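Pasting as-is:
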Amino acid sequence: MDHALVLKDVSHDKAFWFNNGVTVRNIYELAREIHVIDQDQFSYHCNKDHDDFASWIGGVLGDVELAERLRKIKNKKKYAETIEHRIKYHERLATVAIIEKRVFVDTFEWIISSGIIKKIAVLILILIALSLIYVQYTAMQQITDLNARIASIDQKSSCYNQYYDQKINSLEKNTPPTDLECLKNYTLPIYDDLERRPAIISSNDIVVLPDRVIIKVDNASWATFTNSSSMLPVINHNTHSIEIKPQSIDVINIGDVVSYHESNDIIVHRVMSKGTDDLGPFLIMKGDNNPVVDAVKVRFNQVQGVVIAFIY
């Protein structure tokens, strides 16, 4: 691929036309205009049925790899940022290509016009040029490996999203979920510490009668949930639960689902880890359906309760 060519202007007849009348002739202008347009204009050109931007980048600019990556993205900000990262990639390799070309041209001219001493210098320049080629090759290998890892993560994320969407649909429609072919390649996230977590309620504390179930537990309370997707598929807005008030942070274990106060809200997420800093013990929380952990360290005085049972 000619990296410099991807960055150059195309002719007027090959320019990209936005539906608002704006035209762009290079990838820089395209990224800048995508930042500027609103979501409706973006969705006009990029939606589940077609992607005009990717078609132009692959068919006119010649960057088929970027075009294929963009077809999987429907978020406007991420779309523009992906193009900008690719621009920096092309700029780096275009610069390396210019340096290599200059080195070889200079080397050839020196060989024609120089004496023995200059020829020795030429050999040194050739070694430098070969070193540059090696560095470029190594960088390309690293970039290729990184792109492969990114593609693998995207595929894994897509598979998990399909899995959880299917779980939600099966819960809402009360139908059994179907097997996903992609799950054969991945293992769903699990928490190793769940196997070692002590039981909060023993079987002796649960009495099942024909007309009711009795759970013998102190400091219990009934809880309902708002319509949030952060703990899907475990919790939805129709879920109820029984909580207990823990006596200390020590009895809260990794894997427990805990409700805690944050500003004026009550958050219900799972304990991912525990730690201690200058302010004392804390919990690191995460919604099962969230990609990252919560941004705050949760202290014991924020904890409202530990969920001991879900009622669906």
